[in-house]
Structure formats: structure tokens, C-alpha cells
Design brief:
Blueprint: E1 3-8, H1 15-31, E2 37-43, E3 49-50, E4 56-57, E5 61-62, E6 71-74, H2 87-97, E7 102-106, H3 109-115, E8 123-124, H4 131-137, E9 142-143, E10 149-151, E11 155-158, H5 163-176, H6 178-187
Helix pairs in contact: 1-5, 1-6, 5-6
């Protein structure tokens, strides 16, 4: 059965923060006969999302309408700060985290996980310009600098932008094996780190 990969998008989301993981999971699915991942976008409300630098995207689902995810990806970007004040998103994350296999953040998406309490007692990373913010929003978390991503088992966090691709490939390796991750990276002409 295919795993649902739900990727949050929102106004001023960093393009590669969500598009990089989307590409990784979609390519892995394609290389494995379209049998492993159903990757889609979701948003807190219906309507067009204006990505950082002006790209417009229409999300596939809202939080309420999206299929039950096995993998959740929370990207970052300037717009992630507004989501720090959306309790309904934090509650949705807390509830869904109980039944998902993986909750992953990219860049300042970790701030949202921290605000939702999902990083308490864990190690986490974020974009190098946001370490102080992560400490503020996740005071019970050990902030790890100089790592592309941190794997706590169910909860993974990655550093800025392209590190989300590294973390996504790591997730593919965990779920499907190293060969699947290496084939995905090779197809993307991306050097795994």
C-alpha cells in the first residue's frame, strides 16, 4: 500500500523547502513502479498559496480534507513565522504525529514543530540563521548546529533549503532501503551527503 506523504505549503514558504522533498518522494515512487508514495500538498485553508518570490501554487488538500499521512513534511521560509500563531495547525500536528511514521521539517519548519511541542526532549536543527529562534520556540530541545539533518526516529529536522533533499533521501533509505535512495539521487543527479 502506498504511503501518503503530506507536504504543508503556505504563503511565503521557501520554494525548495517543499519542492525538494516533493521531487525526492515523487521520483522514488516513479522509479518503484508508482507503488510506494502518494505525495501531495496541503494547506491550512483552501485557495492559492503565494510561494516566496511570487510563484503561485494551489494545494491539493486542506488539513481537514487530506488523506491520513504516513509522512508529514513541514517546510520553512519567511511565512513559517505566521504559522507559529495558528494553534489549530499545532493541534493537527500533535494528533497526526501519534499515527504517522515520520514527521520531518525543513529549515524553519522546525520552529513550527517546536511550537507544537514535538521537539521536547529531542535534538533538532534548522537553518543556520534561525538557531536562536529554535531555542526560543523549543526551549526543551538540544539545538544541533553544523548538521544537515537530525534523525530522532519519528521526528526528523533538517537545516536550510537543500538539506531538505538530503533528509528526504535519508527518509527514502529508511523506508525503502539504500538502493532506492541511491537510485533516486542518481536520477535527480544529486550527490547524497
Amino acid at each position: 500500500m502506498k504511503k501518503n506523504v503530506a507536504i504543508l505549503i503556505f504563503d511565503d514558504v521557501e520554494l525548495l523547502d517543499f519542492a525538494g522533498p516533493f521531487e525526492v518522494f515523487s521520483v522514488a515512487d516513479e522509479l518503484l513502479r508508482n507503488e510506494v508514495f502518494h505525495t501531495f500538498t496541503m494547506a491550512t485553508k483552501p485557495g492559492t498559496v503565494r510561494v516566496r518570490h511570487g510563484l503561485k501554487i494551489v494545494p491539493d488538500f486542506t488539513l481537514e480534507s487530506c488523506p491520513s499521512p504516513q509522512v508529514i513534511v513541514i517546510p520553512g521560509g519567511a511565512g513559517s513565522r505566521a504559522l507559529l500563531h495558528v494553534p489549530s495547525l499545532h493541534e493537527w500536528l500533535r494528533v497526526k504525529a501519534r499515527s504517522t511514521e515520520i514527521v520531518m521539517s525543513v529549515c524553519t519548519g522546525s520552529l513550527i514543530l517546536g511550537r507544537a511541542g514535538l521537539l521536547d526532549g529531542l535534538r533538532a536543527t534548522t537553518h543556520h540563521n534561525a538557531f536562536a529562534e529554535l531555542r526560543l520556540h523549543a526551549p526543551n530541545t538540544e539545538v544541533i548546529e553544523n548538521h544537515r539533518f537530525v534523525d530522532n526516529g519519528k521526528i526528523l529536522t533538517s537545516a536550510g533549503i537543500s538539506a531538505g533533499i538530503d533528509c528526504s533521501l535519508h527518509v527514502v533509505a529508511r523506508l525503502l532501503g539504500e538502493e532506492a535512495a541511491n537510485r533516486t539521487a542518481e536520477y535527480m543527479e544529486y550527490e547524497r551527503r
